[in-house]
Amino acid sequence: GDSVTQMEGPVTLSEEAFLTINCTYTATGYPSLFWYVQYPGEGLQLLLKATKADDKGSNKGFEATYRKETTSFHLEKGSVQVSDSAVYFCALSDQGNNNDMRFGAGTRLTVKP
Amino acid sequence: DVKVTQSSRYLVKRTGEKVFLECVQDMDHENMFWYRQDPGLGLRLIYFSYDVKMKEKGDIPEGYSVSREKKERFSLILESASTNQTSMYLCASTPTGGVYGYTFGSGTRLTVV
Q1: Tens digit of each residue's pLDDT (9 = 90 or more) over A50-70
Q2: Nearest-CA residue of chain A relative to B6?
């Protein structure tokens, strides 16, 4: 079945460092791809999404590009802040089935001042 | 701002009690979901519903039931709470289409003693 594999954490960076969190997927169809963020003690929030190949999702300085040739959707940010410390989840959804959102295991990011 | 509201942030119940977790969304979404989140196990789907009075089992439905009498409300029921149901419970909703992503509630941290 469809699945997502993301980079294991934890990831620790200094403020203003460049961030990459790798995410690859396996899907039989043409999924939509998502990144969610979870701050301590909270639910998940949708960070960005892309619904077709070569689409770039972006929000709050984060970006990810839907790469069909490498089945990847890596999350990047040019300069992280302490407030970006959170757990990040990559996910995919079969566009024909709302009931099939598959989540990665999550990557914990800690940004130190 | 659109919302998914979970009735309690923290809940402590005794073993054997019947527990109700309530979730309400104000976005007129057709699809609603209950997940539990445990360290090292990620998000696991318990039940979902794609319409009023409809329900489908997810990956770990044992020990749980659900109710969806109105479109905006999706309740998770622990028939007889056990200590292994201590967890963070997350409710989510999404419209039909597979491209929108989920909107999550803030979560309910349930402790069964």
Answers
A1: 999 999 999 999 999 999 999
A2: A43
